[in-house]
Amino acid sequence: MTDTRRTCPTTPRSVRIPHSPRAAVARSARVASAALALTGLLAVSACSGDSKPAQQAGPAVTAEPAALSPSPTPNSSPSGGVVRLTPDVMSRLDVAIKQVMSQASIPGVIVGYTAPDGSYQRTFGVADKDAGTPMSPDLYMRIGSVTKTFTATAVLRLVDQGKLGLDDPVSKYVPNVPGGDGITLRQLGEMRSGLFDYTRDPDFQQAFFSDPNRPFTPDQLLAFAFRHPANFAPDAEYEYSNTNLILLGLVVEKVGGQPLQDFLNQQVFTPAGLTKTSLPTDAAFPDPHAHGYTNQTQSGAVEDSTTWNPSWGWAAGAAVSNLADLQTWSKVLATGEPLLKPATQAERLKFKAVGTSPDLGYGFGVFTTHGWIGHNGSLPGYESVVLYLPQAQASLVILLNTDIQQGGSEPSTSLARAITQIVSPNNVYTLPTPPGSGSPTASPSPTASPTASPTASPTVSPSPAVSPTTSPSPAVSPTATTPAVPTGTPTLHVS
User: Fold this and answer.
1) pTM of the entire predicted model
2) What are the structural domains, with CATH classification, of the chain?
3) Which residues pair with 352 in a beta bridge?
4) For residue 249, which of 196, 198, 316, 401 sits 20 to 30 Å off, Cα-Cα?
5) Number of Cβ within a 10 Å radius of residue 356
């Protein structure tokens, strides 16, 4: 994910616990699983997930304490699937968010929820643990696999312009893709190409963790992926892979005739009204921004990852944005307006099942979970969730400055679940937890707590369902196993 213009974040992942590094084995499983983005779902962080593991794990998610699962009260009757934003409901949201923050040791959180009857906007905790600077709604944040929604939209803009078709083979635009004649652009966007995820390659992980500030080019990222055989035949199944989005980013550059960041600025960000969103070409981070904290480090200790170069994520997870822009984007993503023709948006929303739950699906660079449409993201130090519930015209955006998992749960997933249990009790945000996932740590530590961690985006970090943390099933591809990570090398978790 080779040019100075492209910078990609290390495998986006979610929930982190500053005080509790994980064992090396757990970390590598998690890194693989969270690969960009969807830390959330599938990135959501996320960004996240392999279809087979998701089926094994099922749609189950770590249950929140009873206090976070309130029952509707007489004055909060559902409207379009959501309860009215009364003072009591907002108070319950405050309590639930603070409780999750305490349980998961989350430094800071920004939350924005909007429905026809009002809005709830809050910030909690700190943006800088050393200085004690409080979080504020205007802060720029790294958003991991939510970036995938922008790249996918850029492809769809080109579809509307008649410059390419979703069923075109990727080989028509990008040379030397293994099996590229049989892999379509649609399959790349739907995470059904079978291509190996470069963030799971041991040499990539070694290169990244030995120097998180180093730049990566798209060609370098693809080289890490293409040294591995495909995990399955195109469209045979679902498996979250950041490699897919790097390829789509190159397609946009080829067909659009300009660098990806420029195409996004002109054809996605500006017409959508996103004035604070960008795809960095290096580690530059607009001010003001929150500091990010991760335990995806060589030592397993928590570090400040604010200035780490996100070029490794590029089209899959390097974007920066803020609360206001993402609240706007949540509706644009779910409806297509004003960027896409209705027929093209319909192609985006052709969700295919992920795992065994009929309520979880992945479309073209977007996921759906229990009625909500959007994506999540996760990369070292940051997580995000961007959602829209069409039936209620409600949007939810969550931004936090850590990806350290606690008790087997991504922090962003725990927050989104706690919030939706209150505002949309019939549409609760859930993502499956892949088996064997855990927070990454470079090496075993006597103090490490080997807790399993849920996934992240759609990264889709990928979120658990979308999280590439699980290894391909031997039954699918006996030769496509992930090489063992060298001892002492942490594995990258992204979504």
Assistant:
1) 0.79
2) 24-423 (3.40.710.10)
3) 362
4) 401
5) 14
DSSP letter for 162, please: T
* Among the listed residues 204, 196, 246, the one whose alpha carbon sits nearest the alpha carbon of residue 471: 196
On whether the CB atoms of residues 135 and 128 are closer than 8 A, the answer is: no
Q: CB–CB of 39/398 below 8 Å?
A: no
pLDDT higher than 50, residue 25: no
Q: Tokens in use for 131?
A: 């200085």
Evaluate if residue 136 carries a pLDDT over 60: yes
Helix (H, G, I), strand (E, B), or coil: what is residue 404? strand
Going by C-alpha positions, the residue among 317, 342, 334, 355 that lies closest to residue 142 is 317
201: confidence class by pLDDT, cuts 50, 70, 90: very high
Query: What gap in Å lies between CA 233 and CA 401, rounded to an integer?
Result: 37
421-430: per-residue pLDDT in tens? 999 999 999 9
Q: What is the pLDDT of residue 495?
A: 66
Give 35's pLDDT tier (boundaries 50, 70, 90): very low
CB 441 within 8 A of CB 26: yes
Residue range 331-384, pLDDT digits in tens: 999 999 999 999 999 999 999 999 888 899 999 999 999 999 999 999 999 999
- Cα pseudo-dihedral 371, 375, 380, 381, rounded to 10: -70
C-alpha distances in Å from residue 262, one per residue of 282, 322, 339, 380, 414? 14, 19, 16, 25, 35
Mean pLDDT taken over the chain: 79
* DSSP sequence for 352-384: EE-TT-TTEEE-SS-EEETTEEEEEEEETTEEE
Dihedral, CA atoms, 322, 343, 246, 293, nearest 10 degrees?
A: 20
Going by C-beta distance under 8 Å and a sequence separation of 6 or more, which residues neighbour residue 261? 5, 6, 278, 279, 280, 281
| Closest by CA position to 469, among listed 492, 444, 442 | 492
Cα gap 158→29, rounded to integer Å: 36
